[in-house]
Specification:
Blueprint (H helix, E strand, L loop, with lengths): L10 E5 L17 E5 L4 H21 L6 H14 L1 E4 L10 H10 L4 H11 L13
Antiparallel strand pairs: 1-2, 2-3
Helix pairs in contact: 1-2, 2-3
């Protein structure tokens, strides 16, 4: 049997939930979704390598890894943004688009439940299994 039949998809789509776990539905009546590059993709591997390189650079410069909450949140937002393929058309934030939109949403602490969902989603290999549609 060819083991490649078990390989995962490059991307997966997360249907967002509100902080109370109710589905997030846009004004158009459709679910609000985020399509992410998963752990089996080259895009994810590149984002993860960049994240690790930033940590190594910090260690070289300072010899320690202490960072402020703001810096840690910015790094997390950068990683999630790098792994994001697209937001559904019904997600808006101050008229921003593309990477600027991704970073704004992931950086907004009042929307932290979205970043948490996305981080959990991309850490779950099963979310990228062929034919799966996990939440």
């Amino acid at each position: 049997m060819d083991i490649k039949k078990f390989s995962v998809e490059e991307t997966g789509t997360l249907e967002l939930l509100k902080a109370n776990d109710d589905p997030m539905i846009g004004d158009d009546g459709k679910p609000m979704t985020i399509t992410m590059y998963g752990p089996g993709s080259k895009t994810y591997a590149k984002a993860q390598a960049a994240q690790q390189n930033r940590m190594i650079d910090k260690l070289k410069r300072k010899g320690k890894t202490d960072q402020t909450a703001e810096a840690k949140a910015a790094e997390a937002a950068e990683f999630l943004s790098s792994c994001t393929k697209e937001f559904s058309l019904n997600i808006e934030y101050d008229g921003l688009e593309g990477d600027a939109l991704f970073r704004a949403v992931y950086s907004d602490t009042s929307l932290g439940f979205i970043s948490d969902q996305v981080a959990k989603f991309i850490g779950d290999w099963s979310a990228f299994t062929k034919g799966s549609t996990p939440n």
